[in-house]
Structure formats: structure tokens, C-alpha cells
Amino acid sequence: MERLKERILHEATVINNDVLKLDALLNHQVDPILTMEMGKEFASRYAGEAITKVITVESSGIPVGFTTALALGVPLLFARRKKTLIADPDAFTERVPSFTKGIVTDIMVSRQFLNDSDTVLFIDDIIANGDAARGLIKIIERSGAKLAGLGIVVEKSFQAGARTIREQGIRVESLVQIASLEGGKIQFL
Ligand code: G4P
Ligand code: NA
Ligand code: NA
Fold first, then answer.
1. Is 60 a pocket residue for ligand 1 (Cβ < 6 Å)?
2. Domains (range + CATH), the chain
3. Which residue's CA is the closest to the ligand 1 atom numbered 26?
4. Measured from the CA of 96, which atom of ligand 1 is nearest?
5. What is the DSSP letter of 16?
């Protein structure tokens, strides 16, 4: 998405060689029209996959997850984050470390909303090391649902997340791939 690249060049800030601040577009403020375009793009890339549900993790995955779900005409399911989780037999849970926050959280999806009759498209805003993504993939696997693939707005290709997930044989579609943030410069792949 060329328009998205331009917006990132103008509105994102390089924090250091690893982290790009995307508060203006993804993590604090969202542009509804641009987010609608993202959703339509993911929906078209996964057309014909018989998606029954879009799944994401709260909070920053929700806007683009929503527009993708709207474009596909299916519900959006978002995994919830909890600080400490009391064992819940009615939910799938996974413990995930967070790259930016330096903390561990539990993500949770109720068994009520995910089962082996589902084919899910996993949408997320950013992929870095992929810890959160791997956690949600494990939950999807345990539910028996089929994973059609991932749709990621910003893939930081210099970190291992997207590559290792592709190596598992899972399809990963990214709207923008960033090769490097070295020297404060955003270099696209
Ligand atoms: P991930 O690759 O599966 O996202 O897992 P990772 O543990 O690497 O990243 C954890 C969190 O850090 C995610 O947000 C992810 O979006 C965020 N993150 C990673 N790299 C960057 C970056 O360069 N810029 C920004 N702005 N965020 C980054 P989260 O914990 O899911 O929080 P939320 O935004 O959904 O609330
Ligand atoms: Na996220
Ligand atoms: Na995030």
C-alpha cells in the first residue's frame, strides 16, 4: 500500500533502531478512511478463503480487525489481555511477553466464540518478535479452528516474528514491510 508508506514516512517517528512510534496511525489515533482501506485490502487478499471470523488481540489490533471483518461480512473476535488470570475452564489462555512494554500478560479467548467450525483470519497492527502472535496462534490451534493466515499492517522484517511464522507454513500478508530503522531512517523492503 503506497499511501500507507507515505503516511508512515510523514507521521511515524523512529524511536531507536528497533522501535517505530506509530501513535498517529495505529496505537493512539486512527484514520477511519485509511483503516477502511487496510481492511478492504486484507479482505481482498483473503477472498475465497471462506473466512468465518476475524481475530485480533486488544487493543491496537481492533480498528483494523474491525474494518477487515466489515469488508468480509464476518464477526470480529478480539483476544483479551489480563494481568493475572484465574484459571478459567471456559477459555483458552496463553502467557505472552511484550516487546515494548517489557511485561508478561495473559491473552484469553472464550471457548464460546472459537471452535473447530471456524476458519479465522488473524489481523494485527505490528509484528516484531511475534510473541503475541505465536500466543494467539496456539490458542487458534487448540480451539480446532482453521487459520487461513495473518494480515499485518506493519511488518518489521528485521525482527524474526513474521519470518518464523512463515517458516511454520502459515501465510502472512503485510501491507508494509520495514527492512531497517538504522540511523533514524525508515527503509522499506
Ligand atoms: P508481536 O510481534 O506479536 O506484536 O509481539 P511482540 O512481543 O514483539 O510485540 C509486543 C507489543 O509491542 C505489541 O503491542 C506490538 O504491536 C508492539 N510493538 C512491537 N514493535 C513495535 C514498534 O516498533 N512500534 C510500536 N508502536 N509498537 C511495537 P501490544 O502489546 O499488542 O499492545 P497494543 O498496542 O495492542 O495495546
Ligand atoms: Na497489537
Ligand atoms: Na501494539
1. yes
2. 2-76+113-188 (3.40.50.2020)
3. 21
4. 7
5. S
128: helix, coil or strand?
coil
Q: 153: Cβ below 6 Å to ligand 1?
A: no
Q: What is the ipTM of this complex?
A: 0.91
Host H or E run for residue 165: helix 161-167
Q: Which residues of the chain have pLDDT under 50?
A: none
- Reduced to 3 states (helix: H, G, I; strand: E, B; else coil), residue 171 is coil
Nearest atom within ligand 1 for CA of residue 181: 23
Q: What is the C-alpha separation between 186 and 181, in angstroms, rounded?
A: 5
CB 67 within 8 A of CB 125: no
Nearest CA-CA partner of 149 in 163, 157, 164, 137: 137
Closest approach atom of ligand 1 to CA 99: 7
pLDDT digits (tens, 9 = 90+) for 160-189: 999 999 999 999 999 999 999 999 999 999
Q: Which of 105, 51, 109, 31 is nearest to 77 (CA)?
A: 109
* Ligand 1 in reach of 119 Cβ (< 6 A): no
- Which H or E run includes 33? helix 32-45
